[in-house]
Design a protein that fits this description.
There is one protein chain. This protein has about 325 residues and is of the alpha+beta class. It has two domains: about 190 residues, Regulatory protein AraC (Jelly Rolls); about 120 residues, Orthogonal Bundle (Arc Repressor Mutant, subunit A), CATH 1.10.10.60. The protein has 13 helices and eight strands. A four-stranded antiparallel β-sheet has the order 1-8-3-6. A hairpin with a 2-residue loop joins strand 4 and strand 5. The longest helix is centred in the middle third of the chain and has 19 residues. The radius of gyration is 20 Å and the shape is globular. The N terminus is likely disordered.
Length: about 325
Amino acid sequence: MAKGSGRTEPPQVDPDDDRQDRGEVAPFRSYALDRSGSPRFHIRLVENTQRLYPAHKHDYFQILYFLSDAPAIRIGLTSHKPRAGSIYFIAPMVPHQIRFDYATRCVVAYFDLDFLRPNITRSYPVAELVRLAPELTPFAWQNHVNFDLDTAQSERAERAIRSMIDQHGSERIGAAEIVRAELTLMLATLCQDHEAEFAELSRTLPVVGRDSGHMRRIAEFIGENYTRGPSLDEAAAAARLSKSRLCALIRQYTGTSFQVLIREMRIEDARERLVLTDDTIGQIAYRVGYNDEKYFLRAFKSSAGMTPTAYRLKRAKEDRAATAERKP
């Protein structure tokens, strides 16, 4: 699959910036000011790179389609393990974290609402937006629907992706219109594939309406503060909710408790650092919020089933094997 054109891309978070550790600066990056004079669309193939994109958010819609298995992605408060054929939909201002390794092949596309729907010229609540542009429904239900594509769906999506990459940046007549049509068709057909699930979710969960703002504030606060061990009182105040309501929402949408969620996010962060950095175990423990290295070792082994050192060695061996397989 050919790479897209060399248009300007949004700024990227620097995973090597040590100031991001332990709250010296907030790990979230908003690209709300990175706005050109016309509606944005961009698509590219990411491969042969090993990089952690720390938790960040932006003001456009983003689609990630994986052509291979990949280490991890977290959207809001939910972690996912991508495989070949997985597709993810990240709505504007939703915090997310992504890690690519050298074996990862992923198509990244982003667009402004007014690129997809030039007639919609103002912002709307999500509930109203999916009524006006129903093809955007996957963005509302991302963490509640399994969007792993089967063979036929993958072939259909990859045909659309190849067409968008081919047309993007082209000066041919109607290139932008073809991209818009392919994007709309890809989203709309996926909506039809999951129409029954969307209907059932609409009856059982209010995520598209009342709770979306609450969950965004909860995700932002926890994502910015999990390494310092925030209290339930602090989280409730930041989300403008009672403690009982906060706990109920976290349980409803993640299936776990506030404290367990914090611990899982710390261990997930540690896994990334073990693979992507040469930091010592003690340094990693401190940077993800553990002042007691022995306590960190117990927590990590309880979650991963092995010690941090064993995990680092295992992943290094897997990465070497994947690299060897790609060599001609």
